[in-house]
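Ticket #4471: structure output looks truncated?

Reporter: J.K.
Steps to reproduce: submitted the chain below (289 residues) through the standard prediction queue, then opened the result file.
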Amino acid sequence: MRGAKPERALEAMLAENVAAQAGETLVAAVSGGPDSAALAALLTRHAAECGARVVLGHVNHGVRPSAGRDEGVVLALGSALETRAVIRALAPGSRSEATLRSARYAQLTGIAREAGATRVFTAHHAEDQSETVLLALFRGTSPAGLAGMPLQRRLAAGVWLVRPLLGVPRAVLLGYCAERHLPYALDPSNDNQAYRRNALRSALAELRGIFPGLDAAVARCAAIAREERSGSERAGLRRRLREELAVATGHSREMTYERLDAVARALESGRPGRHFVREGVEVTIRSSP
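Returned output as attached by the reporter:
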């Protein structure tokens, strides 16, 4: 997202990831925070360009003292974007995090069906992915947990949850809100260190100063885990390359995912060239006769 107009790059990336069809209705899950405000604005702009429409969906949990304020911010955002906002409130009951999440997605599914939409979009971003993967790791997860949040998953019959901003740093979304003068509110509960995710978020903020590529590295790990679990042809090709090169050179640890993946992609496309794998090891792909 670098350059004189990073917001343009963000808009182009969103458009590519969403690719809405003319006449399609998109539901943006909006909490009132800056991440979802940016998502709503990005989707609205993209929809206007391709003849689609956006509905903002907000679920009021009724848990935080600021819940009423958040609802007001969503309504203000809908007015600013000239987009309809649909508000749903959860019934009183269990307030565990898992229960609230399930109830929220059930309400968003209902909003989607009422609007005739098949896709609900959330503003999960790069830092959210890092937190999800690392929390799973700390709990002693399986490879499934290391895969993190997928780009999309089925919410219910005929309705999909899509996360088009998973590779975007939160700072970029905050910058977009400032550039577009979008209304949003900050959640005061995010500072409560009693929640594990908040405690991890605070620690990661300090670690990023030492490891600036932290989020990209975790996202790459999650992508590898997803591909390996899916059993894709490219994952199998990378594995065979690693094994064959390890036998030929006696080394395997120094062969990184990026370099093996570049060779795999070149082999898939039949693109000739020389590819550096590690010091003293290159793979040459020759043109077909």
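Triage note (M.O.): checked the attachment and the full token line is present. The beta strands are 25-29, 53-60, 84-89, 119-121, 152-156, 159-162, 273-278, 281-285.
Status: closed, working as intended.
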